[in-house]
Amino acid sequence: MAAWRAPRGMRGWLTDDSSLTARIRARCGRFSLRVVSQGKGAVLPDELAALGVHRHGSVWQREVLLIADGEPVVFARSLVAETTIPAAWHLLHGLGGRPLAAVLFDDPRVRRAPLEAARLDARDPRWHHAARATGVADLPALWARRSAFHRAGVPLLITEIFLPAILNLAP
Fold first, then answer.
1. From residue 42, how far is each of 31, 75, 126, 148 by CA, in Å?
2. Using an 8 Å Cβ cutoff, are 143 and 117 in contact?
C-alpha cells in the first residue's frame, strides 16, 4: 500500500528515509529504547522472501520499543539470516540496548533499499507482536514501513510499526 493513502499526519513518518530514531529524538525531551526480544524467531513468508532465506534457514530477530517522553511510539522488528551475522552483521550481537540506527546510518558500507508502507491490523502477526510489546490488546490498525539495509550484499530487514502516540510528536 502506498504511503500517500495514510492520514496526512503519518505520511512524513512513513516516507522519510533518514534515521527514525534521530527524528524521534529531535521531537521529544527524553528518548529511550527497550529491547522486547532478541534471538532466533519465527518469521513470516514475506519476510523470508525479503531476506532471500529458504524456509529452513534460521533467522535472528530483535524487537524493540522506541519510547518518547515515556510513551512507546514505535515497535521495530529487525531480521537477518543467522548465517550472515558473523560476516556482514556481526555488530548486532553486541548492540544491547543501543539503537540500531547508530550502526546503520554511520556505516558508509550500508545501503538502504526503498521504503515500503502498509497498514496492519489484527489479521497480521506483526500487529500482535506490537500489541504484546505495548501491553495494549485493543490497538487500532497501525501504519508501518519497512526496508532492507544491505551490508556486503547481505540484507537486514527492518519493520517499523507506528504506535498511536507517534501522533503526539511533531510530524
1. 29, 17, 11, 18
2. yes
Dist. CA 24–CA 75, nearest whole Å: 13
DSSP letter at 87 equals: T
- β-pairing, 71-81 vs 59-68, is antiparallel
Alpha carbon of 17 to those of 35, 55, 114: distances in Å? Answer: 23, 30, 8
- The pLDDT tens digits along the chain (171 residues) read 578 888 888 999 999 999 999 999 999 999 999 999 988 888 899 998 888 877 666 788 899 999 999 999 999 999 988 765 555 566 666 666 677 777 788 888 899 999 999 999 999 999 999 999 999 999 999 999 999 999 888 899 999 999 999 999 987
Q: What is the pTM of this model?
A: 0.90
Q: Which three cell numbers stand for residue 109?
A: 558500507
- Distance (Å, whole) CA 18 – CA 16: 6
